[in-house]
């Protein structure tokens, strides 16, 4: 994170339009840097709550009090995806000297709509901060929501240098990791790494609607991991999937082809080449999974993992991690596994492979129950 | 776990056929309870390694030394799925007074094959311990591998009471949680909660084979969670999916139907009812996901979650959990999130909702950076 906020050197305030989770978080983060922030929301209540939590000054409140509303130099449109383009066009017209950016999770359709409206594209830049949380609304906002998360800047062909600089400064000031991409490339990327996983998780989880609960009680971590994001907000995802329909459907054609291939194979599992067909699908999954970068954004890396059975009481897991720290080994990853029917926690720990054997032996010596 | 091992009261030794990860883990667990264990494996090396780690006495070594090989009262077949039925049939013939059980992850086809061979079904019982780890082979074995994990006992119509009792005793002695189910019901259940998630994860991950790495660097926890099990061993899964082809393909027909429905919707996202169609898919995913039981095997439960940004140095996460323990709040779940490109860890913590506000405030007072 830059020490001196780049955006604070701009000459006027930042106007945030839409003060839900993301808009209010941007407001809070900028206020922490002493940047002047104005907030506007279609809902007077949401706007008032955002002001109350310190995300900026309510434009409505200023007007009601007869006070001067300063002219923004940067407008951040943080409204729901399906109204973003319209608000961007209005903001470009209303604030003829301001840079206007949006933070919606699909970029090309918004750029197209803004261009179609004949707006000044030199002052508009689309962006996508890849952050969020399971809750929504300004009460859930956190100024540090963007810390260490990617923030993609997607300039269009007409976007001016000043607009790009303003977007980069905002992202950097809020602690995010910058990436620059063309709008269409961005949309194809998120279709694959975000929207398709959401669809597959929902398709899988929807199969569980009628499964008896005593069957589901046998579920392991695999089912929990693959279905976790199926718990996401349908209203938001309808807008996202509808807006990015074309790249998502391209990926779904490929999924359909693989599903057809697997169905044909499993309908005759003793047939010629059937086992080879299954093996190929599994190996392709291996190959794709291995390409996902690990922690620290580095190349994919294999860590050694082991599992410790711990009593499910406060402080036990802390004590385990304290001892791992005492032994001098850095924790690369950990997960707490669920134990159907028993009050025992299973903590799976990932460490550098060359520290694995020593650590397991030392933990066992100290009385920890290394189970796997 | 029972204090007095039930199986130790049987009159003879346990013969474990197949001394890979699971067979050797069963041997180790029984040896911890002072049960006499004999081990046999198609590979002399694997059998010798299993003896060396203390999983039991090698039958081959006893014979080579001209020593007496005692007659087992229980035979546990822990061989690869595609040879299990044949080994069960042989064991029933070779040991005419022993109970024979297997631990393969698909049950009905094995029972059918054993029945078709005209073997003594009264002494045979299929079982499925739902435990494993990413590594294989006897070196990876752990006597506590089955602690708190489900172990499904699947008697056939002809299975006798003594066989069922022996299987239950084995599972309980090894610390597992017992469930009894008919073979066909078991196979349908694992098709849905284990095999379909594996297939969906592989289908999703295989789409990433040609994705540029700088696109994958934008991946969040959602993609990591949904694709983690796509890293599983293809050789094993070919056998599992081929053996349980019928129930898996039934689920895949339903997935195909939903994929077709979604493709039709996304090909015309502005069409009549398109958004409703997407919303319905998402809501069905919500409904299925919400039915998966939470920790402790209880009813699904919503915990309050928040995220803390921590330095990625040894001991920091331990200190966080220690302080949560000091504040007196029990950790219901936690996950360590990956931070692309930055050496900052994001720890997401789940707690009882009624402790959420106090805990977050207290942690912030203590200087922790609660980011979401």
Strand content of chain A: 15-25%
Output the strand order for the largest sheet of chain A: 3-2-1-4-5-6-7-8
Helical fraction of chain A: 40-55%
Radius of gyration of chain A: 25 Å
Annotation field: number of helices of chain A: 14
Q: Examine the coordinates and then state which fold CATH places here, giving the name of the CATH topology of the largest domain in chain A.
A: Rossmann fold
Q: Work out the largest interface and the residue count of each chain.
A: A-B, 139 and 137 residues
Q: Can you identify the CATH superfamily of the largest domain in chain A?
A: NAD(P)-binding Rossmann-like Domain
Question: Any low-confidence stretches of chain A, pLDDT <50, length ≥5?
Answer: 295-300
What is the arithmetic mean of pLDDT of chain A?
A: 88
Q: Give helix and strand order of chain A, one letter per element, not per position.
A: EHEHEHEHEHEEHEHHHHHHEHEEHE
EC number (chains A, B): 1.3.1.12
GO molecular function, one term (chains A, B): NAD+ binding
Protein name (chains A, B): Prephenate dehydrogenase
Keywords (chains A, B): Amino-acid biosynthesis, Aromatic amino acid biosynthesis, NAD, Oxidoreductase, Tyrosine biosynthesis
What would a concise description of this structure say?
Two copies of one chain form a homodimer. By secondary structure, chain A is of the alpha/beta class.
């Amino acid at each position: 994170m830059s020490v001196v906020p780049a955006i604070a050197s701009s000459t006027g305030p930042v106007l945030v339009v839409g003060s839900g989770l993301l808009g209010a978080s941007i407001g809070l983060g900028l206020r922490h840097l002493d940047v002047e922030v104005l907030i506007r929301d279609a809902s007077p209540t949401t706007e008032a709550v955002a002001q109350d939590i310190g995300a900026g000054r309510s434009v409505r409140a200023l007007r009601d009090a007869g006070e001067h509303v300063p002219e923004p130099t940067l407008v951040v449109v943080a409204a729901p995806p399906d109204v973003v383009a319209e608000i961007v066009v209005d903001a470009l017209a209303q604030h003829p000297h301001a840079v206007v950016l949006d933070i919606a999770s699909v970029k090309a359709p918004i750029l197209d709509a803004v261009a179609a409206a004949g707006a000044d594209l030199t002052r508009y830049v689309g962006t996508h901060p890849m952050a969020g949380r399971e809750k929504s609304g300004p009460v859930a906002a956190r100024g540090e929501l963007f810390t260490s998360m990617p923030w993609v800047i997607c300039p269009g062909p007409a976007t001016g240098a000043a607009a790009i600089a303003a977007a980069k400064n905002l992202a950097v000031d809020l602690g995010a990791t910058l990436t620059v991409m063309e709008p269409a490339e961005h949309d194809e990327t998120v279709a694959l790494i975000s929207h398709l996983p959401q669809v597959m998780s929902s398709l899988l989880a929807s199969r569980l609607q009628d499964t008896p609960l005593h069957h589901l009680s046998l579920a392991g971590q695999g089912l929990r991991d693959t279905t976790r994001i199926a718990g996401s907000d349908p209203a938001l995802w309808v807008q996202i999937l509808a807006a990015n329909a074309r790249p998502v459907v391209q990926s779904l054609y490929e999924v359909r082809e693989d599903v057809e291939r697997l169905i044909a194979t499993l309908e005759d599992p003793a047939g010629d080449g059937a086992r080879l067909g299954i093996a190929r699908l599994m190996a392709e999954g291996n190959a794709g999974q291995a390409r996902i970068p690990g922690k620290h954004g580095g190349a994919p890396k294999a860590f050694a993992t082991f599992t410790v059975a711990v009593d499910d009481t406060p402080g036990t897991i802390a004590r385990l991690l304290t001892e791992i720290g005492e032994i001098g080994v850095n924790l690369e990853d950990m997960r707490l596994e669920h134990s159907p029917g028993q009050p025992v926690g299973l903590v799976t720990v990932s460490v550098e492979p060359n520290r694995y054997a020593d650590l397991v032996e030392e933990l066992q010596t100290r009385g920890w129950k290394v189970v796997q």
